[in-house]
Structures are given as C-alpha cells and as structure tokens.
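Let's practice the habit of predicting before peeking. Look at the sequence and jot down your guess about where helices and strands might fall. Then scroll down.
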Amino acid sequence: MNYTNPLIVQSDRTLLLDVHAPLAEDCRNALIPFAELERSPEHLHTYRLTPLSLWNASSAGFTPDDAIKVLNDYARYDVPQSVEVWIRETAGRFGKLRLVPAPSDISDGQNEDEKSAKEEFLYLVTASPLVYKEIAASVVGRKYLIPCEYEGSEPTGGGSEKSPLVTDSEKQHCFRLNLTDRGTIKQALLQMGWPVKDDVPLLDGEPLEVSLREKTLSGRDFILRQYQKEAAQAIVGNKGPGTGFGTIVLPCGAGKTIVGMTVMDLLKTSTLIVTTNISAVHQWIDELVDKTTLTRDEIAEYTGENKTIKPVTVATYQILTWRPEKDGPYPHFALFRKRNWGLIIYDEVHTLPAPVFRVAAEIQAIRRVGLTATLVREDGCEGHVFSLVGPKRYDVPWKDLESSGFIATAECIEVRIDLDEQKEIEYAVADLRKKHRIASENPKKPDFVKKLVEASPSDKILVIGQYLSQLDELSKMLGCPIITGKTPNEERDKIYADFRSGKIKVLVVSKVANFAIDLPDASMAIQVSGTFGSRQEEAQRLGRILRPKERKSRFFTLITRNTVEEEFGANRQKFLAEQGYQYKLWRCKEAGDLGDFLENEQFCLN
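Done guessing? Here is the structure:
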C-alpha cells in the first residue's frame, strides 16, 4: 500500500482517480489505453474496465500484464485479486477464436472451378474445446457455422506472406463458414463476448501509383510527424494476414487526413474515401492534390451533386444512405463494388451510419481504416466499429500532442447563467426534451455571446449551437454569416474560405460544422447549445480550434444554471476530462459580470 498513490482499484472493476494526488496526471495517461472514463467531478474521477476497452488495448499490443502493472504501480491499496484474474481472462479472450483461410494443400492440384469453390469458404478455429462447444451450441453457430476438421498444414497468405500456423488443437476445433458471412459472424461473436482475431489475408485491389510529396503543391516543405508515420504503419503492418484494417484515434487538428494519405502511399492502390459532408469531400480532394502526386483527373467526387468514379473517389455517408423509399434498397451501396478498391477510408468513423455497417459486414476482404478523434458512440455501437472496420490500432493522448506543440493549447470554460425569469414557469411544467430546449435557448445567452466576442477582437471566433432559430438570432445580432444544413454547398465553401483568409472574423455554425472541417486559424469557440449529453460532439467542437497556433485557444460553453443543461453538460465533458482537459466554472448573473473574469484571466489584454 502507498497512501500517496492516486488510484483506488475496486472489486467491481471501477477505478477511482484522486486528481489531487502527486501522480494523478501520469496515472491518467497510463489508464487511457485500456480504461473508460465514466464520471469526472472535481475530486475523484471514475474509470471502468470493460471487455471492449481491454480488447481494443490487446489489438494495439497492450497486454494484460501491462494493464495489471499500471494498476499496481498507481494503486493506493492492494489491487483486488479478482480484478487481476478478470483482466487476464477477459483480455485473454482476444485471439482465442481466429478466422483463417482455406488450407493451402486443399487447393493444390485442383482445377479452377474446384479452387474457386474452396475460396468461397473460410475457417473459424480455436484451441479450446470448451470455446468450441460454446460456439457450436450458440445461435450463430447453428445458423452460420459447419463443424469440420481443418485438413491442411497451414493456411495460405497473400503473396509470399503466410497466416499464423494452425495448431493441431485448432485443426480439431474448427468451423467452416461462407465467405460472405465473415463480418456478420465477427459481429455476432463479439456480442457473445468472443472477439475474433481475423487472420485471413486481404485482397489486393487495383494498383495505383500514388506517393506523398516532399513539398506541397503550394511550395511548402511537407514533413510527416513521427506519430503519423507510426499510425499509418500500425494499419499496414507487413501487409500480411491480420494487418490492413483497424481504427486510428487522434485528436482533431493532429492530421488524421495525412495519416490516411500515408496509408495510401504505403499501399498504392485504388481508394474509396467516405466522409461526413460535401465540404469535407472538397477538403479531402484539395489535400490529396496538394500533398500527393495525384492529379485532380484521378480523383472523383461522389455526392448528391456529382456522381463520378475514378481511381480515388471521395463520397459522403449521406449519399450512401439515401434511398428513394423508406423501406427500399440503398441504390448507392453499389459504389463499394463499382471498382476493385484496395483500400476504404472511413473518415470520422464514430459517425458511421447504421446502414453502412451492413456494407462493412459484407466487404471484409478489402483493406480499411477508420479515422476518428474519439471511439465514443452515443448509440453504443463501438463494438460494430471494432468488429467490422477494425479494432483500435493506434492512439495518442491529446495532452501529449499539446505539450509537443502539434495541437493548440486549449482552455475550457463553462459559464453558468441564470434562467430568464419569464421562462421559469414554462420550464417547470415542461417535459425533459422541452426543458433542454428552454434551457439551451435561454434569452440571456445572446448578451453573453456578444460580450465574449467584443472582448476578443484578436480572435477568430466560431459560435456553435443546435437550434436554428437561436443561431439565426445570433447571426443577426453579431452581423456575421451563418452556416446550417440549409446553406448551399457553394456558399458554404465560400464562407469557410473567407473565414480562413481572415475576411470574416466571426462565424455562426450549426452542427454541420462538427466534423471534418478544417478552419486552422479558429482560436475561440462559444458553444450556446448542444445535442443533449453528446460526448463525441463536445470533443469535435473543441477540435475546431485545436489546429496549432501561437495563441491559446479558448472553448466557452454557456450553461443555464439549475436546469437539465447542467447534467447534460457534465456528461458532454467526460471524454475531454479523460484526455486531461479541466473546465473552469464561471457563474455570472449578467453579461457585464464577464468583464471581471476576462480581465482577471488576462484573456483580452491583446
């Protein structure tokens, strides 16, 4: 026991971090790879160990021994033996089930039709007879799996590579499955608590000569950062079995697009990129032309406005999930099969729409990478990303990149405001959803926004919110442009360009600007309302102001006191608290009270 240590490990697998203890910051960084933050009040932060957090850690090479060592190094009291046992047993499930291709000697000497028939099957193997019996007795086992004996010496790999050897025990505990059921089975087994290690080689797509430039098209030196190289290499590996798929987790502003382009450079194959909106499509195309040897003639845009397909095609999730009838087919899913893609990049993979998971389950033979700032999904579908796109292969704590100067230093301030008296009765009798909207649209908020903008003349400011009527009012009051989902794409791109150039200093944006928008000089964000308690939205909105810059970035959130907005706000802050961001709390009755805070913080002494 060491009473100065910051961590209390409890037998229910919750971890309490004393943020005032000397080693609290080091402990927080050590927990990030394998534990999930649940609550982050002032003094004790609560983490929880979950199966998915351990399996993601295992996929990235973080062993059960590594996790147990972290707990023992930082624990104030002895780590319960039951927790250590649970970590070893749970993390140890990763790799107990493996997907492997057909044995090499089955195909040898066969004619092409016989070879083709064999290639329609894969094999699920395990060395454990107990696991084998459990899977065989399950619904997924009865529906999709055929018990068999693996007859070959070892499975074949792609090119000269070979899959890991199939042991004698695995040969005896083997199932055959249809190639087309590969993703569905991985998904179903994960839900049973058995993550599948996929050791089936991926298919090579159509070759494409693409390389990163040493100088950008605009003439600037282009140098990859070390973590960007490592992230790309973590996906590509040796190009053999078990590599070529996974998720990269990096903060907004850290260059996830560059990581995607580096993977393209390493694989040199035809690539489909799917992202969140048309503005993001245009940014991807501009970045590809600026930083790779690709020309615009080799890159296509597949959106509602332009549906062409070329060796590199950039599409939106929106067009892929469009269908003419509510219960009809998705006609644009065909894009995934229109070309012999060798790589699919899922940008902002945490927003991957549920219908696209269906396609992701089908196209398991294609190399794929998910890019995201946070694996948090409010719909609880993190497991789908793990099993269908791929487990987390690489991440870096946000504060590590901040201290290295790769993302901006940011300060988060929550400004609590009294509810307007005229709204108190309406709020008291409203249901939960209506309470949230009344609190979010507190009539006092515009005065606070105006005060913050006036006090920050040297900043380039984003005012971000959820409700369009509120945003329209703020746009008119501030005399600045507004971007919402209704803004035409051409106008949207022009406004973004004017903001980047400095022609516009203040911009009001709805949630359409949450994702994949590069506004490198934005140094201040004022969040007036949000999507209930969305942790991913909070992280993305802070990300809008994290591009590296000389000045400190500031993220203000306006919260109505003594309302549901306080509770939702606390939940929104969880992920950022896990990354080490602390929220200062200012309580102001009137907008004029902000002056004392701003002056004391020396924010507006420009």
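How did you do? Confidence is low (pLDDT under 50) at residues 105-110, 155-163, 602-606.
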